[in-house]
């Protein structure tokens, strides 16, 4: 007998007290979330904290979509990576995927911690004590913490356009194929209705998108 959506939801609900405990421990610089990946368009089912400004019903992030696309059921937890919010906050993030009794990935518990102030202090110390020029370039994951699925989709499209390096108006058939394959690798097609949206962006038919993917 298959595990039902309600049974999976009960498993996810067990993580809400854990989210409360983490938030109570680390305070207002922290945000803890529980996501239900059975609906990536509106996966956020619990949140403590306001760091990313999201509300219940917000979608999953680009990082999660890409991880699910690349690794499926074998996806591993992502611990201690950094991202930047649209407001410029530097956020340290850890994600632990939640599985049911059938080892299916049904959600995740996420912890986001604002380390902006710590990073600034660390940079001041580095600058003061350093006698050699260092490369201070940021190396952060591309994650937008969108409030709705349209923002996620727009972010994926814009990122793919930058990486393809050709404007929509100037794209050849080969460029469009690379563009669509780029989106596929990012997990964009896990979003319901993505084929129609991408077809509209490229001014082609859904069947053409399927052909590009093949």
Automatic annotation (TrEMBL):
Please give one Pfam family short name.
HTH_22
Q: Which domain of life is it from?
A: Bacteria
Q: Per the database record, which ranges form the Transcriptional regulator DauR-like HTH domain?
A: 154-213
YheO-like domain: from which residue to which, for each copy?
12-123
- Spell out the InterPro entries in the cross-references: DauR-like (IPR039446), DauR-like_HTH (IPR039445), YheO (IPR013559)
Could you tell me what this protein is called? Answer: Transcriptional regulator
Q: In which organism is this protein found? A: Sporosarcina soli
Classification lineage: Bacteria, Bacillati, Bacillota, Bacilli, Bacillales
């Amino acid at each position: 007998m298959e595990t039902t959506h309600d049974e999976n939801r009960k498993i996810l609900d067990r993580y809400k007290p854990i989210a409360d405990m983490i938030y109570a421990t680390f305070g207002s610089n922290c945000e803890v979330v529980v996501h239900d990946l059975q609906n990536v368009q509106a996966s956020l089912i619990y949140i403590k904290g306001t760091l990313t400004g999201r509300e219940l019903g917000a979608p999953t992030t680009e990082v999660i979509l890409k991880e699910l696309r690349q690794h499926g059921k074998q996806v591993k937890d992502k611990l201690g990576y950094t991202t930047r919010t649209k407001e410029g906050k530097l956020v340290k993030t850890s994600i632990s995927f939640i599985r049911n009794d059938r080892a299916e990935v049904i959600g995740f518990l996420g912890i986001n911690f604002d380390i902006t102030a710590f990073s600034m202090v660390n940079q001041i110390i580095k600058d003061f004590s350093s006698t050699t020029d260092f490369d201070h370039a940021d190396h952060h994951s591309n994650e937008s913490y969108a409030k709705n699925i349209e923002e996620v989709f727009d972010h994926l499209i814009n990122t793919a356009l930058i990486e393809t390096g050709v404007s929509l108006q100037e794209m050849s058939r080969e460029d469009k194929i690379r563009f669509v394959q780029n989106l596929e690798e990012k997990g964009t097609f896990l979003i319901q209705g993505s084929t129609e949206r991408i077809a509209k962006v490229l001014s082609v038919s859904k069947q053409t998108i399927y052909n590009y993917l093949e």
